[in-house]
Design a protein that fits this description.
Blueprint: H1 18-28, H2 30-40, H3 44-49, H4 55-73, H5 79-118, H6 122-153, H7 160-171, H8 186-225
């Protein structure tokens, strides 16, 4: 007696296996029970020798697998509002982190402007730009980590490294797709990508404004020396 043929492409994340779903479906519809079980336990060599005779079994299997996949992808009606609430909280937290972080950098820049007007050294300008760059990078790091902690608390990933990797890829809008969220929280991952896009653009505009400001001061120093 030969071993039954297994189907390698069955969904892995669903709580009900494909074979169990098919057998349960067959018990509700006795007319299809013979065909479904015949396909699940059909010998590979026999199926290759007579492909036309088993087209019906193949079509029924694919249809059942499609219905099973749709069932697994369904989102409970109460889950979407909860996901949106969590997403709104995370957007508010990351936005506040960015706002107060840039405000602190602005205060530091304002305090250094007076010293810049009396000291025309290039190193001081470079120090200010590096301060802004590292400050922005620190803000984005805190935002990415906050999402990673949220995913870990929601139980979406087994390790923090996996949650941090997914959060970094989503926040930077890379979207590799090798690690994904479950159906219940996948909207949160999409909102993180939009949130990251807006915050990164905000940081870029702030860095450009700082660079422009330093260039204006440099031209003012050159005109004063002339």
């Amino acid at each position: 007696m030969q071993a039954p043929v297994t189907q390698p492409d069955a969904p892995k994340k669903c709580s009900v296996t494909l074979k169990g779903h098919l057998l349960r479906e067959a018990s509700l519809n006795r007319a299809q029970d013979k065909h479904i079980n015949h396909w699940l336990h059909f010998d590979e060599d026999q199926r290759l020798r007579s492909p036309r005779g088993n087209q019906l079994e193949h079509d029924q299997y694919e249809a059942s697998r499609s219905r099973h996949h749709t069932l697994c992808m369904e989102l409970p009606s109460s889950q979407l509002p909860l996901t949106l609430v969590v997403a709104a909280i995370m957007v508010a937290i990351t936005t506040l982190i960015h706002f107060f972080g840039l405000l602190l950098l602005t205060r530091l820049m304002s305090g250094a402007h007076a010293r810049l007007r009396t000291n025309e050294g290039v190193l001081r300008q470079a120090g200010m730009i590096l301060l802004v760059v590292f400050g922005i990078f620190s803000l984005h790091t805190a935002q990415v980590w906050s999402y990673a902690v949220t995913y870990r608390l929601l139980g979406e990933f087994n390790t923090f490294e996996e949650a941090l990797y997914f959060s970094t890829v989503s926040f930077s809008t890379l979207g590799f797709g090798d690690v994904t969220l479950g159906v219940a929280w996948r909207v949160l991952g999409a909102i993180e990508a939009v949130n990251g896009l807006v915050l990164i653009a905000w940081s870029t505009a702030f860095l450009m404004s700082v660079t422009t400001r330093l260039r204006v001061l440099e031209h003012a120093w050159l005109d004063h020396n002339d």
